Amino acid sequence: MRENLKIGILGGGQLGAMLIRHAIDFGLDISVMDKNDAAPSSRYASSFYCADPLSFDDVIEFGKGLDIITIEMEAVNTAALRQLEKSGVKVFPTPDNIELIQDKFTQKQFLISQGIPVAPGEAVDGKADLHNFENRLPLCLKKRRNGYDGYGVMVLRSAADIQTAFDEPSLLEELVDIKQEIAVIVARNEQGVVKSYAPAAMVFSEEKFILDYQIAPAQLDGELAGQATALAEKIAVALGLVGIVAVEMFVTKDDRILVNELAPRPHNSGHHTIEASVTSQYEQLLRAILGLPLGDPTLRTPSFMLNILDNASFSNNKEEKIKELLDLPGVHLHWYNKKGGQRPGRKIGHITITDSTIDKIVSKAETVRKIIN
Ligand code: ADP
Prior knowledge:
Distance between the termini: 44 Å
Strand content: 25-35%
Structural class: alpha+beta
Low-confidence stretches: none
Bound molecules: adenosine-5'-diphosphate
């Protein structure tokens, strides 16, 4: 690793903060850019640049003195990143890959072109087009761009639902009969070495599509786990990725695997890797983009991850509740210290539970859930 490398992260959320924590272990200085000057990473970055990662000029200004740029969210200006790349800054993932993934429709077309199984879907310009699909309902409608945590996803069950649908370029997908949702995080370095984390199971709250909890390893038939890993690795290779990509997948009720979406950055399905894996996803990303050998992704212990969502009961008794949580062995607290008042439902932290068996973890998770809700 070269001395005094200047590394920048576009985005200053909790994923960036966890990445910085691991960068400190490697003795690195990290600059962060986010439009919110109270973003969770702002307190930890060596230098913090408060500006919009979607602005061409701001990204150029931020990036021109850096050696390497990476991202912790996809909403960034790819034209500026392309220009920085031409002037010698290394950008991981590549601007082409970021652009491909920013749009759920081009992402799906890419996956299909690589022979990856996906739910069939079509692009629509807006609400008016949806009436042409009335006789094919139910369908899943997703904004092509800028959806996250389920905020750009809705199920259209009847013609009446079309009245409340998003009126913007979207992707209309067949509704999948989902048995289980899983994610595989894959790392790939410049030498083409690929290493994958064991599939993790993700359980979403039914009404809002927001992640409720996550278990690693996913309780999955061995053959399906192998298929999921092979698909995720094929995607990382097809992208020519240097870094990490989280591949979110559905296991259907008839045991097929369909790839849902890609995130070429640290991902909440890999929070547990900090405590449960030999090498965390954050350290793995740093190793990949710094040209270092990839680390061992093996799970040392099963784990369970729950988000702490902003709610009055937790916030009003925070000190007491944190004491109760930390009194439980194998409970690891990650508090994001988000500023800017209460907003019920937003992610303000997460808990990772580790123990020797899934059964022990699941029962401990019930206790944790009562404390945080
Ligand atoms: P986001 O980018 O907001 O995370 P996703 O595409 O991951 O959006 O969708 C969020 C959730 O919506 C998924 O995890 C899944 O629970 C549900 N979902 C997405 N697509 C489909 C589909 N085609 N059929 C059924 N459920 C779906």
